[in-house]
């Protein structure tokens, strides 16, 4: 979509959400939209439906819920001074979070606001005569279905509402699955197959249907001792995966990390993503979240540093080591690490032209090198190039302590130091941002083609233990990353191996919690987490929502265990 969609957001106004029982938009005076053509009005109505996705996918919202609650990410109380936040990140990792957790509340509110905006669009677009209004109407229904999938996945319920003046009906389990399915099937013939990854397309509908069918066993009975994956559901996963693969619209990327570059919007592997191109005012903080406060990825911005946020758990790191032994994972698998600074392999390369400076990508371990800042400016070599060297914790006033990321990270004093935990730099730092640190152009991926192959592989394993077909799909993805030497082919395939492979392919892409639940791993033990309560598979409904719905007795009940 064009930049003008953001400008025209005022045609529908912003939502005020105090209670989940009243998911209403406040529509501004129509005079604010006077002089617009029907096409412009339609664009202005659909824009807000997508506009909250960047907020939902911020690092402290959806990411925190989907990753810090798992064996992939952990965020300790850094140095006893940073990321304390009343213990919410410790509790999220240990599965002791409560209904007052602000990240859970913010994520809930943003999703419901997005759903409300979808309903506003569904009611407004039929009044317009431009042909685009019909396409946008289908997209609005598709986004309502997507937001419903998020609430079903995280909170175990779906709000059903068509009229802005009525209270939502709450549904769960099989009824919720069937509702989302019916909505997606209804728009399948109506959406455009070629609108790009930032909008609901035919490929997105197929992908969401495949994901819905794959997780339907969990959604129907989220607290089950053992999930029942129906053969007919698995057939549907294969059917919709085949539609995407055979469409010819998408292709696997040769370069794994290009999937997460600033210019990834046009990467053919992306099916559905949060559109954060520069003209849409992207707010992508994923690039700096995990880095050290003494890592500065942008020569143009001496204040654009990391925040010493989460690291990967030792448990997750060890899966890489075990799978690739005796080789180091950085050598064996191009998804693990990409070296951009030559000083790591040649200590003499300590001067780098500013335009050529790029921080390493992937999982960062050990001593870190980079731009050296003194008194607020970067040091330069005599020839004017940027000085690159060994990094110390200067911004923490610990100039003798090296920025050397360690494998061990936990909630002890030693394990919570600023250097603990291997870090993740998957998304590229924006080189065009006006602030460097807070904005970014990289689209945040919701669904990509590699996931489609992996879903198809899993469905075949679950239905009939077709290990040969599943192995072929997984190896096809591994072999596709030919920009460097791809990971070697696997020789066997089981559900446990597929779960491990999904971790390698999609780490920190906000799929892990959903995967762990589906594979029966979420009640396991890792790092600082020992809680085995299956009620933690879904999050608590925020207490503010419970309180706001108290005027209707029995309408909104708290999830079990909270």
Automatic annotation (TrEMBL):
Primary subcellular site in the record, as a coarse category: membrane
Protein family per UniProt: Belongs to the SusD family.
Keywords annotated in UniProt: Cell outer membrane, Membrane, Signal
Localization per Swiss-Prot or TrEMBL: Cell outer membrane
Pfam families, A to Z: SusD_RagB
Domain of life: Bacteria
Protein name from the UniProt record: RagB/SusD family nutrient uptake outer membrane protein
Annotated Gene Ontology cellular component terms: cell outer membrane
Source organism: Runella aurantiaca
Domain RagB/SusD residue range list: 414-535
């Amino acid at each position: 979509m064009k930049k003008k969609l953001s400008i025209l957001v005022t045609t529908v106004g912003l939502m005020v959400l105090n209670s989940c029982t009243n998911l209403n938009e406040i529509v501004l005076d129509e005079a604010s939209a006077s002089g617009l053509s029907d096409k412009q009005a339609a664009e202005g109505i659909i824009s807000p439906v997508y506009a909250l996705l960047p907020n939902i996918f911020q690092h402290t919202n959806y990411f925190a819920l989907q990753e810090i609650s798992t064996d992939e990410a952990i965020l300790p109380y850094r140095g006893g001074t940073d990321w304390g936040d009343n213990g919410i990140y410790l509790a999220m990792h240990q599965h002791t979070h409560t209904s007052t957790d602000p990240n859970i509340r913010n994520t809930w509110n943003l999703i419901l606001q997005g759903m409300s905006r979808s309903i506003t669009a569904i009611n407004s677009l039929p009044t317009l005569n431009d042909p685009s209004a019909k396409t946008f109407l289908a997209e609005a229904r598709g986004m309502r279905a997507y937001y419903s999938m998020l609430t079903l996945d995280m909170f175990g319920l779906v709000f059903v509402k068509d009229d802005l003046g009525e209270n939502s009906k709450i549904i769960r389990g099989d009824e919720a699955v069937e509702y989302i399915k019916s909505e997606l099937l209804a728009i399948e013939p109506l959406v455009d197959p070629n609108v790009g990854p930032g909008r609901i397309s035919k490929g997105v509908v197929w992908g969401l249907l495949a994901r819905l069918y794959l997780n339907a066993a969990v959604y129907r009975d989220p607290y089950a001792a053992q999930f029942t994956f129906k053969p007919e559901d698995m057939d549907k996963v294969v059917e919709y995966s085949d539609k995407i693969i055979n469409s010819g619209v998408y292709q696997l990327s040769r370069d794994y990390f290009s999937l997460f570059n600033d210019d990834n919007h046009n990467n053919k592997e992306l099916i559905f993503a949060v559109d954060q191109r520069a003209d849409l005012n992207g707010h992508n903080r994923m690039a700096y979240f995990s880095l050290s406060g003494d890592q500065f990825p942008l020569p143009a911005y001496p204040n654009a540093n990391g925040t010493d946020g989460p690291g990967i758990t030792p448990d997750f790191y060890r899966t890489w080591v075990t799978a690739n032994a005796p080789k180091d994972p950085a050598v064996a698998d191009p998804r693990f690490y990409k070296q951009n600074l030559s000083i790591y392999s040649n200590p003499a390369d300590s001067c780098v032209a500013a335009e050529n400076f790029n921080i390493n990508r992937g999982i960062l371990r050990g001593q870190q090198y980079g731009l050296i800042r003194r008194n607020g400016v970067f040091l330069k070599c005599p020839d004017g190039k940027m000085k690159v060297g060994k990094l110390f914790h200067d911004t923490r006033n610990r100039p003798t302590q090296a920025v050397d990321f360690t494998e061990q990270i936990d909630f002890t004093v030693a394990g919570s130091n600023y250097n603990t935990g291997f870090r993740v730099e998957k998304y590229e730092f924006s080189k065009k941002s006006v602030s460097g640190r807070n904005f970014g152009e990289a689209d945040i991926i919701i669904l990509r083609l590699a996931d489609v192959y992996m879903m198809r592989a899993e469905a075949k394993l679950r239905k009939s233990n077709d290990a040969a077909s599943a192995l072929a799909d997984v190896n096809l993805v591994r072999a596709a990353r030919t920009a460097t030497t791809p990971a070697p082919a696997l020789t066997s395939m089981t559900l446990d191996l597929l779960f491990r492979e999904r971790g390698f392919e999609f780490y920190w892409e906000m799929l892990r919690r959903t995967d762990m639940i589906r594979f029966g791993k979420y009640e396991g033990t890792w790092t600082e987490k020992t809680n085995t309560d299956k009620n933690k598979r879904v999050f608590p409904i925020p207490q503010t929502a419970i309180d706001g719905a108290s005027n209707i007795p029995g309408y909104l009940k708290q999830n079990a265990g909270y």
